[in-house]
Design brief:
about 160 residues; alpha/beta; 6 helices; 5 strands; binds 4'-phosphopantetheine
Length: about 160
C-alpha cells in the first residue's frame, strides 16, 4: 500500500522553508500531496489559490513523488478521501507549537486514520514565513534568500505591484 502524506498550508506564497519541509517529506513517504488550503484566520491573500498552486507546481517539478492540489474544505475530509496516513507540517519555534498542537488534536478528532507529523525547520529557516517575505518585499527589500529562484521574479513583481495598489 502506498504511504501518502498531505502537506497542507496557505502557501501565500511558497517559501524555501516550505520547500525544505516538502522535500524532506518526499523522502519519508511514497507520495506527498501539497495542499493549498484555506486558513480562516488569514484574511488578506496576495495570491489566488490557483496562482499559489501554479507557483508550487514550478518548485516541485523535480520531485517525482510530489503533487499539488487545492481544497477549500476541512483538511481531515481531504486526508480521509486521499487515503493518506500522515499530515506533515513544519514546526519553527515555540510560538508555532500551541496552534499546531491544537490543529493536530482537532484533526485527529475529526479523522483518527492519519497522524500529524512535525518536521523541525532548519536553523536558517527558523524565522521565515510568507508574512515576513511579504513585508520585506513591500518595503523594497531583497527576498531572494527566501523564495525559490524559479519563482522569484514573478513573486517579486507581484508583491511590488501589491504594495503600489
Ligand atoms: O500555512 P498555514 O496557514 O499555517 O496552514 C493552516 C492550514 C491551512 C493548514 C489550516 O488552517 C487548515 O487545515 N485549513 C483547512 C480547514 C480546516 O481543516 N480547519 C481546521 C483545522 S483544525
Amino acid at each position: 500500500m502506498e504511504r501518502i502524506a498531505i502537506c497542507p498550508g496557505s502557501f501565500d506564497p511558497v517559501t524555501i522553508g516550505h520547500l525544505d519541509i516538502i522535500t524532506r517529506a518526499s523522502k519519508l513517504f511514497d507520495q506527498v500531496i501539497v495542499l493549498v488550503s484555506k486558513n480562516m484566520m488569514k484574511q488578506h491573500k496576495c495570491f489566488t489559490p490557483q496562482e499559489r498552486k501554479e507557483l508550487i507546481a514550478c518548485v516541485i517539478a523535480d520531485l517525482p513523488n510530489v503533487s499539488v492540489d487545492i481544497f477549500d474544505g476541512l483538511l481531515a475530509d481531504y486526508v480521509r478521501e486521499a487515503g493518506a496516513i500522515a499530515i506533515v507540517k513544519g514546526l519553527r519555534a515555540v510560538s508555532d507549537f500551541e496552534y499546531e498542537f491544537q490543529m493536530a488534536l482537532a484533526n485527529r478528532k475529526l479523522y483518527a486514520g492519519a497522524e500529524t507529523v512535525f518536521l523541525t525547520t532548519t536553523a536558517e529557516n527558523m524565522y521565515l514565513s510568507s508574512s515576513v517575505v511579504k513585508q520585506i518585499a513591500a518595503f523594497g527589500g531583497d527576498i531572494s534568500h527566501f523564495i525559490p529562484s524559479e519563482i522569484l521574479d514573478v513573486i517579486t513583481k507581484r508583491l511590488v505591484k501589491e504594495k503600489l495598489s
